[in-house]
Design a protein that fits this description.
This protein is mainly beta and 91 residues long. It has one domain: GroES chaperonin (10 Kd Chaperonin, Protein Cpn10, Chain O). The protein is built from no helices and 6 strands. It has a 6-stranded antiparallel beta sheet with strand order 4-5-1-2-3-6, with no helix packed on it. Strand 4 and strand 5 form a beta hairpin. The termini are far apart. The relative contact order is 0.31.
């Protein structure tokens, strides 16, 4: 399935969070983990009138924790965010 975001929306594949704590304890899959705040941009909409998009496909980004909407496509989880939810591009 091919997804093409509209206006200023961005399709993001979230990066998995750390699987162990700072002290080295491994977290099992049964533990509820916090939602990731980083991801890889998969697709970008064309932007709004007079506003250009600052991110492009392939960029690694940091986004606001509760801004993006979660979607599931073919058993894979993605996020759809507005450009204003993107806080930074990781270089």
């Amino acid at each position: 399935m091919n997804i093409r975001p509209i206006t200023d929306h961005i399709l993001i594949e979230p990066v998995k969070g750390e699987e162990k704590t700072r002290s080295g304890i491994l977290l099992p899959d049964t533990v509820e983990k916090e939602r990731s705040e980083q991801g890889k941009v998969i697709a970008v909409g064309p932007g709004k009138k007079n506003i250009t998009m600052e991110v492009k496909a392939g960029d690694k980004v940091i986004f606001s924790k509760y801004g993006p909407s979660e979607i599931k496509i073919e058993d894979k989880e993605y996020l759809i965010a507005k450009q204003e939810d993107i806080l930074a591009i990781v270089e």
